[in-house]
Amino acid sequence: KAGVTQTPRYLIKTRGQQVTLSCSPISGHRSVSWYQQTPGQGLQFLFEYFSETQRNKGNFPGRFSGRQFSNSRSEMNVSTLELGDSALYLCASSLVGSRYEQYFGPGTRLTVT
Amino acid sequence: DQQVKQNSPSLSVQEGRISILNCDYTNSMFDYFLWYKKYPAEGPTFLISISSIKDKNEDGRFTVFLNKSAKHLSLHIVPSQPGDSAVYFCAAIYNNNDMRFGAGTRLTVKP
Questions:
Q1: Which of B7, B101, B105 is the best mutation test for A, with the most CBs of A within 10 A?
Q2: Residue B3 CA neighbour count, 13 Å, CB half
């Protein structure tokens, strides 16, 4: 079974631009969660989508948004990029949103200059 | 808010010895704890977990200990192997909804 895939793997953007990251979950998984990983902060939860609906949301500004499609693929969008948005963005999928069994993708490394 | 803390950013251990990674948490409502391992250029992978009703869970070379009164979690790796070199994250869950991660500890196992 193929794992969680994320595209692109690396991205360089400039301040003020916007970016869209993509995540394809494991086949059959309906829940996709997004996390931001920065040095010293660990993984911080952004949001979770289940059956095309945002089910949970972390403490991030409205510039961070996401959506999920009917095939469970998910996209995350960050508008008006700031230098502090430079991070590794990870998505994780699970069957029905169980936090106990999440499978992570390799992440997208976003650098904002 | 750092509800889950890993105070040691790095740890270096000799091959064959024990590695002990520590994690502290502040929210007594957490009812499940997990450890993830992360290699460079890969996503975190699940390693071992423990429910709050237990104080120890063992899986091969990996053992997780939970001290609820101290709100402290530790991962023991015995014996440590060079392939164990990675970043280890602890995570805590409340009600299968709220999940918090520590900042990670980079373990280096020297041959």
A1: B101
A2: 16
Per CB-CB distance under 8 Å, the chain A contacts of B46 are: 101-103
The per-residue pLDDT string of chain A (113 residues; one tens digit each, 9 = 90 and over) reads 679 999 999 999 999 999 999 999 999 999 999 999 987 788 999 999 999 999 888 889 999 999 999 999 999 999 999 999 999 999 999 987 677 788 999 999 999 99
| CB spacing of B99 vs A99 below 8 angstroms | yes
Is B4 part of the contact surface with chain A (CB cutoff 8 Å)? yes
The answer to whether A22 and A6 have CB atoms below 8 angstroms apart is yes
Tokens of B85: 């070199």
Q: Is A44 on the interface with B (CB under 8 A)?
A: yes
Reported as a single tens digit per residue, the pLDDT across B4-19 is 999 999 999 999 999 9
Which residue from B32, B43, B96 is facing A106, i.e. has the nearest CB? B43
